């Protein structure tokens, strides 16, 4: 299937210019990965499907969100992809929190070159509360078990933000383990990319 069609199928209406920007980001990701560890080498042949499309599927889940926050951004999934897609949403912005200096430098360089509405915060997630703009949406992918994710994202989720967290096949047990300590509303969105994965849509977070 044509890549542009693939992207629009999972992300909704995307301009050709933004599509080209995502392909450019893919090439930059490969180039930088030759020097610094941005992703597991085994995933590099599948960046478009496994990382970019997987990240892009978040967009239709929050069509009106203007302020985004990606924690533990790593090599930029989903945060960098969201940043590029937000170019098509006037007045939108995203903060990316990544404490690894080399990865933060990659994000800063590429996302500035792409003229995205992204701000990079090269700090620990635990230090980000009060330093990043208040988000509507908090994202994280391949970062930590759900219980730890809720703890890290609590400053924003307890203030009314929603979480969109990528999770794999063991997500149900992670959710179950959280119920003793947390109360929250949950919607499970089946992944458009991986039949065994989900996007956990979490709101109304409170400690029990």
Which keywords apply here?
7 helices; Rossmann fold; alpha/beta; 7 strands; seven-stranded mixed beta sheet; single chain; 21% strand
Overview of this protein structure:
The chain is α/β, with parallel strands linked by helices. The chain has one domain (3-207): Vaccinia Virus protein VP39 (Rossmann fold, 3-Layer(aba) Sandwich), CATH 3.40.50. Helix content is 37%, strand content 21%. The protein is built from seven helices and seven strands; from the N terminus they run αααβαβαββαβαββ. Strands 3-2-1-4-5-7-6 form a seven-stranded mixed beta sheet, with helices on both faces. Helix 4 (79-85) links the parallel strand 1 (67-71) and strand 2 (93-97). It is globular and about 45 Å long. The protein starts with a helix and ends with a strand. The mean pLDDT is 95.
Strand arrangement, major sheet: 3-2-1-4-5-7-6
| Biggest beta-sheet profile | 7 strands, mixed
The helix/strand class is alpha/beta
Number of H- or I-type helical stretches: 7
CATH topology: Rossmann fold
Report mean pLDDT, rounded to a whole number.
95
Percent of residues in helices comes to 25-40%
Note the quaternary state here.
single chain
């Amino acid at each position: 299937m044509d890549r542009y069609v693939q992207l629009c199928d999972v992300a909704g209406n995307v301009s050709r210019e933004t599509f080209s920007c995502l392909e450019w980001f893919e090439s930059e990701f490969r180039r930088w990965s030759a020097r610094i560890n941005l992703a597991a080498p085994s995933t590099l042949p599948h960046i478009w499907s496994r990382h970019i499309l997987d990240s892009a599927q978040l967009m239709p889940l929050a069509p009106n969100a203007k302020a985004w926050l990606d924690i533990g951004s790593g090599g930029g999934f989903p945060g960098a992809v969201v940043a590029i897609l937000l170019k098509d949403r006037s007045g939108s912005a995203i903060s990316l929190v990544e404490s690894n200096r080399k990865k933060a430098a990659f994000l800063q360089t590429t996302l500035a070159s792409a003229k995205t509405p992204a701000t990079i915060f090269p700090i620990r997630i635990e230090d980000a509360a009060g330093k990043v703009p208040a988000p509507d949406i908090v994202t994280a992918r391949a970062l930590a078990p759900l219980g730890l994710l809720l703890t890290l994202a609590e400053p924003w989720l307890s203030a009314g933000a929603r979480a969109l967290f990528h999770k794999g096949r063991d997500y149900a047990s992670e959710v179950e383990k959280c119920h003793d300590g947390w109360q929250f509303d949950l919607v499970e969105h089946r992944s458009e990319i991986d039949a065994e994965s989900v996007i956990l849509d979490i709101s109304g977070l409170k400690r029990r």
